[in-house]
Amino acid sequence: MKNKLILISYLALSILLFSCSNDNGDFDATGTFESEEVIVSAEAMGKLVFFNVEEGMNLKKDQIVAVVDTTQLYLKKKQLESTIKSVLVTQPDIPTQLASIKEQITTTEREKVRIENLVKTNAATTKQLDDINSQLEVLTKQYDAAKSSLTITKQGIISQTLPLKTQVEQIQDQINKSITKNPVDGTVLTRYAMQNEITSNGKALYKIADLSEMILRAYINGDQLAQIKLGQKVKVFVDKGDGQQKELSGDIYWVSSKAEFTPKTIQTKDERANLVYAIKVKVINDGYLKIGMYGEVKF
Fold first, then answer.
1. The domain containing residue 197 runs over which residues?
2. Number of folded domains in the chain?
3. Among 14-28, 199-213, 229-243, 276-290, where is mean pLDDT lowest?
4. CA nearest 149: which of 98, 200, 108, 112?
5. Would you call 7 helix, strand, or coil by DSSP?
6. In whole angstroms, how far apart are CA 185 and each of 33, 57, 58, 60, 182?
7. Same structural domain, 107 and 127
8. What is the dihedral of CA 12, 15, 16, 21, to 10 degrees?
9. What angle do CA 206, 209, 210 make, to 5 degrees?
């Protein structure tokens, strides 16, 4: 009887352990964690006189991380600015050059008033008044012609500087692009360059990712599509060691519209399925999650 009771107890314990084991493995999808990675490249060619990037370093958005030598660009910009100043110096000073004619017109207008008063008292002839009016008309036309000519000359000189100013703006744009600013808050994953190296436009400098929020790319079969929707909260499990799992909360934010063959490293709930759909689950990272780590999802 004692042996029979021991056998029954053993069988009951085995069934319990088997059930617990099935619960732990009862997941709806599996996959690996990844992140939204950004490869930052240089936008200018030259020597990296400053490059403050190390793998594992946390960088802030808009933080200056690299500077390409801009000495030649700066000197060329100064040369163009000096040329612009020398050209503008030659433009006429319109008010000064018209001042003498303006003064003659003012004097003639006063003389006209005097003669008009004399004509009223018969102390001057109408011919004198006609002569002063003609003189005033001539001076006014001379003033208008001189002003028009000087204005055209000034505009012509200013127009000569427009291409030079455009070149200055182009050089300033190149100088601005010689300074690389980090595009996102994140952690440097890989560094591709070193300070004092010669870089070129489009050459990768480093790769960065925001690891505060990880993405679990998992796979489901066609029958499971009806069980999920965008924005759905799900449970995510990762191994903690010693047969234990860490539970996290996640949100489904992307579902593939196309089926694909089951990846070799992924085992779905229905092992007989030939085609699966990829989903992406956002998970807040408390520092435990790593890129490439295996994860399981329960809907």
1. 39-69+179-209
2. 3
3. 14-28
4. 98
5. helix
6. 19, 11, 8, 5, 8
7. yes
8. 160
9. 145
